[in-house]
From TrEMBL:
Homodimer. Catalyzes the reversible conversion of 3-phosphohydroxypyruvate to phosphoserine and of 3-hydroxy-2-oxo-4-phosphonooxybutanoate to phosphohydroxythreonine. Keywords: Amino-acid biosynthesis, Aminotransferase, Cytoplasm, Pyridoxal phosphate, Pyridoxine biosynthesis, Serine biosynthesis, Transferase. This is Phosphoserine aminotransferase. It comes from Ellagibacter isourolithinifaciens. Its cofactor is pyridoxal 5'-phosphate.
Length: 360
């Protein structure tokens, strides 16, 4: 079998052109006589790679000059701790919980200070983003935290909370670089790259200058202080060098595709193919409330666990891979990130139509 359409929530598909470039450069990167995997992170060649990667993501996201871009390790989960450690000066933060990832971040923050739950949609099984009222934010909050696209439940924010002078912190792991964003609306945006941007092992943190400070919680490990990494250009210790290189290739690919406006259009079209089918299907139904549907993660069910299992197995035999839903939701989930071609979604919808006919 050749390459499959991989609907995994992450690690996920990467653009084939990027994989081919990485393969071609595997043994000898740009005349260096070595792979990027083998290269000193202090070499001029690697310095060129990380600086170009940073410039390219700055161009793609129009990142203002007063924000720093950090290429870090520890996954998005480590940021659940790093964010309160670095940002909690009054030791107060407000969390909106719209799914299991924001719930985990909220739980972690409680270890370091007062984390307030200002809104939650858990009582609606996280099928939507909860209503939130800006007046409910604590006046002394160090930040307001959201997860802008909840990967498991397939929901996304339709508008951002108005936080005034309180910095807004957003986990964009499962929607990174899938559409344009106004970085200036946030104090900090971050995401693990293994869904939309690159191989697992890199987390990118985009943080406003004034939030990179010395007066972090005193027990914050040196390596987890944003100041340590910002001062060192993400090279305080050995960075995830190969992963950063592949992210850089993806940034170039995104630029060639026309940037984030073009990706948004393509992603909207792909998601519409799937949602339009789900909305008229008599067998399958989407689990997220319509208004809050994610463009990236599409959970759906038949309502019969045995039939779901049959669907997943038959889909796999057709080269439609990793459609099993997260264990907390069950059913199916199709993750259709930037690198999933339209043909992949078309093949999925065609198979769903066929399966529906055969299992009516
Ligand atoms: N946040 C979101 C929205 C996620 O989808 C995930 C991973 N699926 C995480 C955080 C945790 O990421 P990591 O495994 O890189 O720690």
């Amino acid at each position: 079998m050749g390459r499959v359409f991989n609907f995994s929530a992450g690690p996920a598909m990467l653009p084939e052109e990027v994989l081919k470039t990485a393969a071609a450069e595997m043994l000898d990167y740009n005349g260096s006589g070595m792979s990027v995997m083998e290269m000193s992170h202090r070499s001029a060649t690697f310095k060129g790679i990380i600086e170009t990667a940073e410039q390219d993501i700055r161009d793609l996201m129009s990142i203002p000059d007063n924000y720093r871009v950090l290429f870090l390790q520890g996954g998005a989960t480590q940021q659940f701790a790093a964010i309160p450690m670095n940002l909690m000066r009054n030791k107060v933060a407000d969390y909106i919980v719209s799914g299991n990832w924001s719930k985990k971040a909220f739980k972690e923050a409680k270890l370091y200070g007062t984390a307030n739950l200002v809104a939650s949609s858990e009582d609606e099984n996280f099928t939507r983003v909860p209503d939130f009222d800006s007046a409910a934010f604590s006046p002394d909050a160090d930040y307001v935290y959201i997860c802008q696209n909840e990967t498991v439940y397939g929901t996304r924010y339709t508008h951002l909370p108005e936080t005034g002078d309180i910095p807004l912190v957003s986990d964009v792991s499962s929607m990174f670089l899938s559409e344009p964003v106004d970085v200036s609306k946030y104090g900090l945006i971050y995401g693990g790259v293994q869904k939309n941007v690159g191989p697992a092992g890199v987390v990118i943190v985009i943080v406003r200058d004034d939030l990179i400070r010395e007066d972090v919680l005193p027990f914050t490990p040196t390596i987890m202080r944003y100041k340590t990494q910002a001062d060192a250009g993400s090279l305080s210790n050995t960075p995830p060098a190969y992963g950063i290189y592949v992210c850089g290739l993806v940034f170039k690919w995104l630029k060639e595709q026309g940037g984030l406006e073009a990706m948004q259009k393509r992603n909207q079209e792909k998601a519409a193919l799937l949602y339009d089918y789900l909305d008229q299907s008599k067998l399958f139904s989407g689990t997220a409330q319509k208004e809050f549907r994610s463009l990236m993660n599409v959970p759906f069910v038949t309502g019969d666990a045995d039939l779901d299992a049959k669907f997943i197995a038959e889909a796999k035999a057709r080269g439609l891979e990793s459609l099993k839903g997260h264990r907390s939701v069950g059913g199916m989930r199709a993750s259709i990130y930037n690198a999933m071609p339209r043909e992949g979604v078309e093949a999925l919808v065609a198979f769903m139509e066929e399966f529906e006919k055969n299992n009516a």
